[in-house]
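Query structure, 374 tokens:
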């Protein structure tokens, strides 16, 4: 069995690729990083080293890598033969994968559709990828099944001394929408199939990801360089707790989660984020703030839910304000956001960046955030 995974970075090797290999697949990593591809093909194994409760170390052996830019025919052949195609490249990169996948699907001879899943920190990422493929070659869609997923595993900054080895947290969650797949669900190690994925995607996005960026953006505002350092600042920790109470209210209102069970999920999340072995920099966690400020992402979406039920999202607005002031000279998306902030009228900025129209109940509070950041 063959599984092709786009993205041979730490998340690809330490999470999805590892679980696919555990499930009995030969994993073929597609990447455009020459040195990483060469190293994967030189080594016959690498280790996934867990940290946290129940931590184990697993050796991944059944893999190879292809540079999909330099060796396109080989990449196409692998994609055309695969039973599963996955990706963890960042949601904004998916559109660049679509032409290659569309061409491979056209070459496919197996009567069994390939299962395609974009494993990204975004709502409906696989559906986005499907839409990109459909715009290129709608006739090939019958040769694939597209299933949205929700994924969760923290992978800290890679240490050069580890080479291909990856340190990850012991906790992982891979939820897959079962509806497009039907009765013949594949046997995937560490994955769970659910009939309604959306509540779980939002639970993860509005809890884990929202808390993470709250520490990053507010931590930087108080001079912190790392997430752990940020968590030890009393003012930042107060904001973090306030944010999690607000997102909990939004999620319970929207999806009718059991309050006690959800509170245990929040407590587990806090323990994960504050694990010293998973310490990360505020710059890495906070990068691409415009994407994280978009309408359906981790800050504006839960704030909008609260505003729509008449609740003021005080702490979420504090994080949104900090995100608008986030500084990183190495991230062009930060400069792009700053340019829009300085040049666009406030209402236009809020609509273009955050997807909130002037008549929305969240708009007045966002106007104050944006004007304060200008």
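Result returned for the query:
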């Amino acid at each position: 069995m063959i599984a092709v995974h786009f993205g041979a970075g730490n998340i690809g090797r330490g999470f999805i690729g590892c679980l696919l290999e555990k499930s009995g697949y030969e994993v073929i990593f597609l990447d455009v990083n020459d040195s990483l591809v060469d190293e994967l093909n030189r080594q016959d194994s690498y280790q996934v080293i867990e940290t946290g409760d129940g931590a184990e170390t697993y050796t991944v052996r059944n893999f190879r890598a292809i540079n999909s830019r330099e060796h396109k025919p080989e990449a196409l052949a692998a994609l055309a033969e695969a039973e599963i195609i996955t990706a963890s490249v960042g949601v904004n990169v998916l559109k660049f994968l679509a032409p290659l996948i569309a061409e491979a699907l056209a070459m496919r001879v197996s009567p069994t559709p390939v299962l395609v899943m974009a494993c990204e920190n975004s709502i409906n990422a696989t559906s986005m990828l499907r839409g990109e493929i459909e715009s290129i070659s709608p006739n090939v869609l019958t040769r694939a099944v597209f299933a949205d997923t929700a994924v969760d595993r923290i992978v800290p900054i890679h240490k050069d001394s580890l080479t291909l080895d990856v340190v990850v947290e012991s906790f992982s969650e891979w939820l897959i929408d079962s509806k497009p797949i039907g009765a013949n669900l594949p046997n995937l190690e560490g994955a769970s199939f659910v009939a309604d994925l959306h509540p779980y995607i939002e639970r993860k996005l509005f809890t884990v990801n929202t808390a993470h960026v709250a520490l990053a953006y507010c931590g930087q505002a108080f001079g912190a360089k790392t997430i752990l350092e940020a968590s030890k600042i009393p003012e930042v920790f107060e904001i973090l707790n306030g944010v999690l109470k607000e997102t909990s209210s939004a999620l319970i209102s929207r999806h009718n989660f059991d309050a006690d069970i959800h509170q245990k999920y929040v407590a587990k999340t806090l323990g994960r984020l504050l694990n010293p072995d998973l310490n990360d920099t505020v710059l890495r966690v906070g990068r691409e703030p415009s994407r994280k400020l978009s309408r359906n992402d981790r800050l504006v979406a839960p704030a909008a839910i609260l505003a729509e039920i008449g609740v003021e999202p005080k702490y979420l607005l504090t994080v949104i304000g900090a995100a608008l002031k986030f500084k990183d000279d190495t991230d062009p998306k930060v400069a792009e956001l700053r340019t829009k902030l300085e040049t666009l009228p406030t209402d236009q900025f809020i609509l273009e960046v955050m997807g909130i129209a002037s008549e929305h109940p969240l708009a007045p509070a966002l106007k104050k955030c944006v004007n304060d950041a200008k």
